[in-house]
Design a protein that fits this description.
The chain is α/β, with parallel strands linked by helices. Helix content is about 45%, strand content about 15%. The protein binds SN-glycerol-1-phosphate (1GP).
Amino acid sequence: MIYSDIISKKQEEKKQFAVLIDPDKLEEKLLFQIIDHAVISKVDFFFVGGSLLTSNNLDFCISNIKKNCDIPVLLFPGSPMQISSHADAILFISLISGRNPEALIGQHVIAAPYIKRANLETISTGYILVDAGKPTTVSYLSNSFPIPNDKPEIAVCTALAGEMLGLKLIYLDAGSGAKNAVPPEMISGVRKNISVPLMVGGGINSGEKALEAYRAGADILVVGNAIEKNYSLMKEISLAAKSASQTLKESYQN
Ligand code: 1GP
């Protein structure tokens, strides 16, 4: 099971790395190139989905990943239309930073029977949208107000409430293509207050930013846009994950 694997890696202090694939943006040839780089870089997961998909490539994209590598595929759905039985699991995302009932529970009611029929492992995820310095597709489409990025205490209380409600993962996201990534102070504040795994994404475009986010307390980083532009970034982020894991282990030994 994917979630128990995430928990085991977290317990071993092993930082994890997910590559986000937007099926709209990838031609077949590019998808194979990303898969090759991901295998070499030992990426932990592929997330597939997005706030707005305009093509019908989801199944095609996931089945090609599954045919060509063993990296688990998790759906990262922006709507109940993004369900595929070819995936290994689905992030069942509730937008807990917003006050839009559709994104909190409405769309879930619509999606639930389809997810059950697809027999997908379901990982309930508290999604916290953080101000990215400019509007993002997710802030616009979710009709929700992101948490100001200089208010870590709001993110902490939101994450705490999500954990208390039984959500299995907390995801701090600045949104795809964010100008500003989630600040390290916010990541560390949330990390100190929850015990479920913490995912962070949005605007991570260098090994340094990845290392900063891991060191602040992210267990899993999600990177999309920057990898589409530069596949070799996968290797850099994997190295950042390794380095942050090593530092953590050493700090426990001393
Ligand atoms: C979006 O956090 C993910 O939800 C990835 O963001 O595309 O900016 O890496 P980027």
